[in-house]
Amino acid sequence: MSRPLPSLSTDQVAALVELSRHGTLRAAAAALHVTEQGVRNRLLALERRVGAELYHKRRGPRPGPPLTRHGEALLPHALAFLDRGRELGEAFAGAVGPQEVHVAATQYLILYVLVDAIRRFHRAHPAIRVRLSTHSEREIEDALLRDPELSLGVAAPYEAGGELAYAHLLTLDWGLVTPHRHRLLRKRGVGLADLADEPLILYERGSTGRQHVLDAFRGLGLTPRVELEATSTAVVVRMVEAGLGVAVVPLTPGGEVTRGHRVGVRPLPGAVRPIHSGVLTRRNERPLPAAEAFARFLGAGATQTAS
Question: Which CATH class is domain 170-275?
């Protein structure tokens, strides 16, 4: 009876080849555009598949080659494996189905930015499909760090820096949204001080938008009267329309946020720190070509909107 074939991936095999070429996990990670831990995880998975130790795990400088004798024995087969994989990909180039880009975004950006952007992206790149999932800002950052299948995040970063890279897309200013014919709509120069005694509908805890609004009130020594909380801007606007309170929300230049709702809108220039949104990726890890194409498309669209 023949021995079953081990389940190997090109990522695992490429990690072994690049470690052999460059001598260290750090250099191999740079060549593969992944983190050092990512290379280590791939090598450990490969060792489990083949049932042998393939590289030396000593810390500090290594006086000799990085691969064990089992790794050296596997190396020529690994090179051949990658060559056959490239040939297979070239043989079926153009015959495969659509590529997929998994994007996590906030509900605000999905509704008011990404839906239209994806429609235009599909016309320009019919072989790439975008899969969207909705999360809060903090959830998006956590998901990017733990889910390798997630390509990009589109959000206002909750905690910028660290293991994630941020590329800016757009800046949104804030406005007051009130029920139709609310008395504040007749007042000139409405500011946050005029809202201190109004029932305020606020974003959920853990969101960047909530923090921006609360910081603005606290900066004036005010404590807002929070009446209700909601996850998304669309729900907040519906609550305002129902007469449950007023809200301070970021507004798009085209008016998409309140269009079709019986509400009043007043700009609040400079009252709340503008909210910046962009594309989040894992630092030191280059996205796949389809994800890079989508990120570039979003950036080009944001540039055209700003101009």
Answer: alpha beta
